[in-house]
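Note to self: user wants both folds in one dump. Writing first protein now.
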Amino acid sequence: MTGPDPSSPLHSLLAGDAPFALIARDPDTVEVLTGDVVDVELLADIPLIDDDGTAREVLALVPFRQVRERGFVCHDDGAPLRCLVIGERTVLSRAEVMASLPSSPVHLEGAGFDIADEDYADIVRRVIADEIGRGEGANFVIRRDFVADVDADPRVAALTWFRALLEHEKGAYWTFAVVTDGHVAVGASPEAHVSARDGVVTMNPISGTFRHPAGGSTAETLAEFLRSTKETEELFMVVDEELKMMSAVCSDGGRITGPHLKEMSRLTHTEYMLRGHSDLDPRDILRETMFAPTVTGSPMQNACTVIARHETTPRGYYSGVAALFTPNSDATGPSHDLDAPILIRTAYLVDGRLRVPVGATLVRHSDPYGEVGETHGKAAGVLGAIGAIPRDVPVAPAEADPDAPVAEGRPLAEDPAIAELLTSRNERLAPFWMNPQDPDGSGPFAGRTALVVDAEDRFTTMLAHQLRHLGLDTRIVHWAEVTDAEVDAADLVVSGPGPGDPRDADSARIASMHGVVARRLSGSAPLLAVCLSHQILADQLGIDLAPLAKPHQGLQKSVDVFGEPASIGFYNTFTARVAPGTSQRGLTTGRGSVTTEIITEVAADAETGDVYALRGPGFASVQGHLESILSRDGMRTLERLISHVL
């Protein structure tokens, strides 16, 4: 086995026992970071400032269990929030690093997935039927682990695998190795979860996975993938979920650009970029964006609950982040920039046991065996690079199909047909989120207040941003914390969306949302009810509720909303339903708070009677998510409904 030249700075890393990290973030250099390890309990405890007030550079490995800081559930394995407080930084050329690191393969024993293919396919079926089918969310990521025994020095293994990833994996956002006492993490993450530089926050949702066929991808095979409804909607759903986070941390809500292709050695993904402005501490930005929906699901809180139900072991660092905090002094004193890729496509080595966790995004269209194949493809990207499985061999020119389309040396994203397919996706999306937004309080409802009641779906952050854009002074309150006085005081109450069955009499959350709707309805106080709350309002008006035959999770539909067509995104498993052809009716019911006749106008599907919107004296509701990127006519429809209510 070859090793670093004794004169190389890398020699001491292999020969010593001090913690270190290697990070490749550009094509030409590798950053070598050394320092002291400090384990802390909370993100707020990450030691960015030393005792004399000097800003410090820190690399933090944030485990999945940190979601407890947001009140979410998880299998708690005690994985530490590990901080490498950087004392010395060296930048080397990638060529020097490649020449210096060991290259002989690391032998594996007993390699294979911890969950058999058929068992994982059964999990996929259960999640689709029992979770998505019951309204628990739009998509969920369930993992399995590739495991093996390793009889090699952990430092040698780490440096060997890091070199192999540099050589054989392309398109990574970070290629890295982090070696601390008793723990090794080596990976090539394709995805920047969140970064903050000079007040500009960027998120990079990546979803949709094209596994390259034997011999590599072509424009023709890639085009077939890009036309897939399942893959397209999967990406749109994670963009929606990350826009929720952006709206929570950015004053201007966040603007999307793309889509782009992320081309790697064995896989190609589709991605968008989201950007906005924030003055929050980067640790607070990290907390509010834990963790990426591409590796958890949506809505986020319920996704964590679903993960805990279907994954029987803790995640460790999988789906967490590696967060590099770099001092950036400005006029007001020390501050830090943040660069935080997701911890995916990463190999972990602890006590001689290798673990490569991978997951598939499960949606209503998912094919169980297709998702099994996706986990194999994702694991292969790391395992093939480090030599644990055979690497892809490019097709020799003489063997290539002479009639197959070629990119003539260009990235496939530059192929005109591929570029057109990517661009065409945006024709379906809401222009509001693709244009700069910076609410200045001068909208049509300026001078009025809005209270948004959060039922555990952070679509409310996007709704609040749109309401502010319309001029409303808007505040969000969690369902468990809202008071009657707050409900009474607001000019407008927006009762928000959330997961679950609106008929669930045992849910404290559903009961609380019933109370909010009933209180506003009984006093004829302005109320807008969205999705779950729309169903609750319908129930109190005496309109029947029923599950849909097929869940509408991430579905875009063009519907008639009180005489005006609107393209709207839907995320619902249940629906209010009237007799087909109903447009207006007097309703009398003893349920809820409504005991007198209320004339209620109904916008419903002419054939099924599924109710898309309701309006009456002082109230309106909508089944779809007007705040979603899938709602091309969302802002127009939102303004119309609020105008009616007010």
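First done. Writing the second protein, which came from a different request thread.
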Amino acid sequence: MHFVEVAVQNVRGFSPAGRFALKTGYLVLKPPTAELSPLAGLSLALLYADGRGGDAALAATTQKAGKAALTLVGQDSVTYRVLRELGGGGSLHRLNPATKQPELVSQDTAEANQFLRGQVGLPPRTTFEQLFCLQAAQLPSRRPRGAGRPASTSGLRAHSSPGMHPSSPGMPAMRSPTSPGMHPSSPGMSISSPGVLPASDIPAAEAKVRELEKELVFCREVDNLQFEVDGLNSQVFDLESKLRGTDGLKEKLRQAEEAWNAEPTPESMGLPQDIVARAERYPRTLARRDEAMARLQSEREVADEEAQRLPDVEPLVRNRNFWIAVGVGVACFVAGLFPKDWVRYVALLDIPAFGFAAVLAIRYVDELQDKDRLSRRGEMFTVREKKILEEFEAEAGPVRKALEVFDVDTPKDIPPRLQRREQLGAEVAQLRAQLVSMEKHPEFMEAAHQLPVLRQQIELLNAKISEKGAFVRDVREVERELARLKESIALARNPQMAAMGMPGADVAGGSMEPLEDPAPMVLSLAGDLLATDVPAVIGMMRERCVQYFSALTERRYASVEWDRDGRTMVVTSSGRRMPVGELPPREVDLFFLSLRLTVVEKVSARVKLPLLVEDALVGLDESRLPLLGRMLKHLGTLTQVLHVTPHPGLAQLSDGPVNL
């Protein structure tokens, strides 16, 4: 589920009238004035209207009624629009996917609420408000402390006898004698903390003070180095985030290449590379073969007709005229051998006789040649037919094999079977070009160049920290021990100050009720939303919550532990375990933020609901805001995050600011 648009008219904290488009991701909503826009309250009034008119308080002026509309995409992927007149009635509409026109669902408040819960997928109001609306009023430090809860008194000892408290009714207020110039309210003096005993050996205690002061300086040096390391780690995180911006594209490229390589190729199936072109020109090849065979058959028929028209060739030895001419020629030749003159002239007749015989012989040879030529034409037709079939087989044979391989009926069905590989190849080429373009972007190249430099600086700083020693106590722990030691010295020098101690005070002096542990309620609501029990939710949340909390507190806390009811114990980096409510208020707030961000991250894997952040970061350390902004931006990759804040730095981190 995510919000698509918010439209307002005369609503407090917004422009007098406007429509604000909301896309997915991490969006920063800038209010028009110094007053923060009540986006969470307006969303709750629209989505969980009770019909009592309390939402009229959201109107900017009382002279004119306020109106608001919220467009959202439900868990069923259908677009809905909730319209309401603040303090009055409203209606729920649904966008028809076919006609793209809105259709009225209901104008009854109860019916609309039931439809939003059942069909659209909204959780109960308490779940949505306590898990997906993050407001400053929800921070533990800003909520009233639990009345009547016992304060933590571990390690503390009361200085009053039972029933003799200085402020008990009927007892006069006790006044402790003070040394001249040392009034309890004087600057630099504080009431002694219960549980701090006067020092038994003042010189030894003062020597210990000097050691602690040296240790404090040393710890601060290490803390400053660690602060630099954390700052560099933050920069490394930003650079790695930029470099990881190509991870999604690389994964898509890898999957596309795998699909491309998995597709069969003509070579892998024993087919020529140009099988697609062969299949496309197969009809033309078949037509050429049929045409050539038809022409050959026509020529063969003509040759057969000519052969039938030729008479049978009579052998020369059976030609009577040939032998007569030869005989006449021989006789004339023999007659020329006689001595008589006139007989010799007869010998000249052998010339025409032999010539006639030669003509008959030549004619016989011509007839033989014609017959032989016709017989050879038949062989030529056979050779031509064989050549035509061989050429056709060389062109069409792979196509017929492809028909068998792909189990299709016609050659035109072959190209579609191989087109997917071509399409995947084009997609791979496009993704490669996009990846090269992203990696050659100046910001990407600058990040790739800076990252090893920053890592080298971190290694140098870590080496310096290692040189300082394997174990360094937390600065505040040393400060607390130093303060207690100085107080014990002061008590030893002024015993009368011990009477000014107040039972129930904490170690730092000053009575304070522990803050409420926010975890049981949050974990219980998360369990209800995920339809599981609290122990299962704890197992799901623990590791990620520790990562968020450690990052926000600069690694002062190493672990978070929950019992079966969700009550929280935190473990400091030095190994000390303590209830989360006994932490400083600001760090309880950081734990609360860590837990809420963890719940949204884990729940969004199953149920996507928008996270509405409304001035919950106001009052936190300015140095932590960029880190919190990056955390919210990370959540924006999992679900829609709408952050109402005027902070310009957070707007730069967002996927897009929206001016309200």
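Dump finished. Worth passing along: Residues 73 and 556 are 41 Å apart (CA to CA).
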